[in-house]
Amino acid sequence: MKRGAVEIRIGLGSCGIASGAEQVRDVLQRAGQVKTVGCNGMCHLEPLVQVVEPGGRVTFYSNVTVETARLLVRRHFRADYQSAAGYHPAPQSTKQKRIVLENCGEIDPLNIDDYLARDGYRALDRCRKQLSPEQVIAAIAESGLRGRGGAGFPTGRKWALGRAQADPIKYVVCNGDEGDPGAFMDRAVLESDPHRVLEGLAIAAYAIGAAEGYLYIRAEYPLAVRHVRAAIVQARARGYLESLHLEVREGAGAFVCGEETALIQSLEGKRGMPRLRPPYPVEQGFRGKPTIINNVETLACVPWIVRHGPEAFAAFGTPTSRGTKVFALAGKISRGGLVEVPMGVTIREVVEEIGGGIPNGRQFKAVQLGGPSGGCIPARLADTPIDYDALAQTGAIMGSGGLVVLDDRDCMVDIARFFLKFTQAESCGKCTFCRIGTKRMLEILDRLCEGNGRRDDLEKLETLADYVSRGSLCGLGQTAPNPVSTTLRYFRDEYEAHLHDKRCPAGRCPALIRYLVTDNCIGCTLCAQACPVGAIAYRPYQKHEVDEHLCTRCDMCRQVCQDDAIEVVVRGAGSQPAAASQAAPQK
């Protein structure tokens, strides 16, 4: 782990591995033993290397390659090498408060001793030796912790209901079935700090009197599954689980199984479909027994609350939304990755100060908050504080924490279509309103994006959204219309442009744009070589042309053009290519 007094850490979470961190690690290991850690949240800088020097000085090296890793070794292990040319320290934000993520990027997730060295399992030990189950539940209630999976139900109240059940057989379940597009909070925590989640689950089991628990993790997270299973083996061998039996169950990737009753069905080996409530899972859940289900982030908060006290957690946030929240920043953002902020910070602070704003000089247009069940909040409402009540007033929801940033090149009709297409495909089909209603809504959005909208389409969208929301059984159907409802509310002018003018103002909808080669073309043929369908003839040293009948609007020609000779022209009445000339259709 160390050579001399210098420690080298490299992130080997999914984002690091995908960026080539394993090859960088191999180079660093030649200088000495390297400590592998999980993702620390700065995914946009992977591969990310930390060098901890004597006295605790930490230097971050971002976007490290095999070649630059050799320079890094020379700088820290050779006295004759002083320059750090080519390296840039990773920016750190003072807006963040790391509670859930406090160990991520700091410990080896496969080494229980690393976790123990940072007060791991102290909270569980304190609960068993010093606190009664009722006192544990009271502390969680006093902290103000609410479920971080989206619904925001008070965790202490849920545990109290579970404790009150007379049945001697009870279960605790960790919901790791994270499926929102653009969300990766739970995955990162499970990969980087699995013992933290196990400790939270064990405390929940102690509080309600359960002897058996399950971690339901989607199979698309193989690294998380592997790390959690290894952590269970280690914790059991050290005696931290005592008589508590924990087991990992892999989900098959159905988004609806994030809903707790559908998750229970899947745990029991049945098709994942929601059921009517009541009875609630806390009364009749897994195998008909009282069951407490909490998501990964909720459970990861619990050990910190027990160690530091409920008042310390409640000191962060707002009166109705205590503590911190982890967000996955994605989309048109300079610094994408994971951030953890106190509840009550504004959307603008997250996007512009922590995320670094919109790249390439584009304008901040909106955020899609809460995943496919969330809503689009326009930039003019960016000073809205992030808490459950304030977001609900905008028509969005907190959700599990996905935050997708949109710029002025994004078409809000197409964004609504993208998320509705996801939820429509993920509908289990049990409810007529969800199964058929979302299908009819998607057909209308398809027509609008193709320039075939009908006079009453917007009114039909609003009516269907109301029916689907009120008539669906579970949270998937009840919130599926949110992206459509919020974009209609805040960006109705874009819908009307698609409907009346057959025009996409953002220049994103393929059927409503065309590609034009300007006089800047020098005949280099790069666009012709990149075109996958042969829509641009190969004519060296001549101005090229785009065959509209063959063009699929894939945007490859514009991306490879080095002379800014490709414009995207918006079709429709009175339209001009200006704002859309840099736009590309979303695929």
Could you characterize the architecture of this molecule?
This protein has helices at 14-18, 21-28, 66-77, 112-117, 122-130, 133-143, 155-164, 185-192, 194-208, 222-237, 260-267, 296-308, 310-314, 347-354, 388-394, 412-426, 432-449, 457-471, 475-479, 482-490, 492-501, 526-530, 556-560, and strands spanning 2-3, 6-11, 35-37, 49-52, 58-61, 171-176, 212-218, 245-251, 291-295, 324-331, 337-342, 364-369, 375-378, 402-407, 513-517, 566-570. It has 587 residues and is of the alpha/beta class. It starts with a strand and ends in a 17-residue tail after the last strand. The longest helix has 18 residues, at 432-449. 38% of the residues lie in helices and 14% in strands. Helix 6 packs across helix 9 (194-208) and helix 18 crosses helix 20. It has five domains: 2-77, Glutaredoxin (3-Layer(aba) Sandwich); 112-313, NADH-ubiquinone oxidoreductase 51kDa subunit (Rossmann fold), CATH 3.40.50.11540; 324-407, Ubiquitin-like (UB roll) (Roll); 412-501, de novo design (two linked rop proteins); 510-582, Alpha-Beta Plaits (2-Layer Sandwich). The strands form four sheets. Strands 1, 2, 3, 4 and 5 form a five-stranded mixed beta sheet that branches. A five-stranded mixed beta sheet has the order 11-10-14-12-13. A four-stranded parallel beta sheet has the order 8-7-6-9, sandwiched between helices.
Show unreliable segments. Answer: 79-90, 573-587
Number of strands: 16
Strand content: 5-15%
Number of helices: 23
The largest β sheet comes out as: 5 strands, mixed
**What is the overall silhouette?**
globular
Let me know the average pLDDT: 89
- CATH architectural grouping of the largest domain: 3-Layer(aba) Sandwich
- Give the number of domains: 5
Q: Helix fraction?
A: 25-40%
Return the CATH class of the largest domain: Alpha Beta
